[in-house]
Amino acid sequence: xxxxxxxxxxxxxxxxxxxxxxxxxxxxxxxxxxxxxxxxxxxxxxxxxxxxxxxxxxxxxxxxxxxxxxxxxxxxxxxxxxxxxxxxxxxxxxxxxxxxxxxxxxxxxxxxxxxxxxxxxxxxxxxxxxxxxxxxxxxxxxxxxxxxxxxxxxxxxxxxxxxxxxxxxxxxxxxxxxxxxxxxxxxxxxxxxxxxxxxxxxxxxxxxxxxxxxxxxxxxxxxxxxxxxxxxxxxxxxxxxxxxxxxxxxxxxxxxxxxxxxxxxxxxxxxxxxxxxxxxxxxxxxxxxxxxxxxxxxxxxxxxxxxxxxxxxxxxxxxxxxxxxxxxxxxxxxxxxxxxxxxxxxxxxxxxxxxxxxxxxxxxxxxxxxxxxx
Length: 374
What we know:
This protein is 23% helix and 22% strand. The protein is an alpha+beta fold. Strand 10 and strand 11 (196-201) form a beta hairpin. The chain is globular and about 65 Å long.
């Protein structure tokens, strides 16, 4: 995700976008997962497939923060900051961390959280709203590059002024949300892709592996996550879901000029350790820049991982349901257009998708007996 495209001022980034402060004041961060939830997260941990030559996920504090320096808003420089140092300046919006890669072999770590939600079950339902468990897995990559299918006409001039493999330091919005039903079965998978999320229902557009775990591909250079497909595969992608980009992604418009497909080409899976941090930790809540400040737009390091989307989509149901749309589905497109016309926006579209999400989920649970997917 290119965080600085949404920079508000020279010394402030996306963490200061209007609405975040109010949302997090009303929704305090959760503590780190307890023993039972940690066991649950380990049981459903996805398999991540890396392309050839990819370094893979790293330990945020050991492999990234420990190698570099933090400059606070007051100009104090701290070399090789510790977790305590980073958390001490967590709320300093002008704090800037610059990573200086070390030579040590990285330790693959994925950061897990566990939350519970009703996923906005339709109000007209006469059954008790089901509680879903959402286990989120954040991967951390040292750098993020531009999509591998960036056209040469764009890539060649950019190469003169920037490293396309290291477009910005730190990629930690890269997340997989595994949605578990009340009976503990995985029923949906939501993946963060660039500055938006995509949701697939099990049995409709994504399948579980034989052991009940999801297989997920990491894209070449950009690190974005996609449901696993063997072999080299182009994945439709855009930077942000404005109207033209949404129309293209949903199959009802032309490709925007400034867009490029991701490419996945899985070569190997990665063995990783699951780690659990409280929601108040700087990994999630840092207000400043967790990567080097760079001149070109989109190249500054991001703030904490909780700033992965706009404030109106921060409620977990909104993130999952806003991402539930199918390419070429006329019903999804009509609901999107209606939400845009009536001014309800992205959150309104998410609420409009809730009913079809739950109806399709119920149909899949019945193995499509006596029903069809909408």
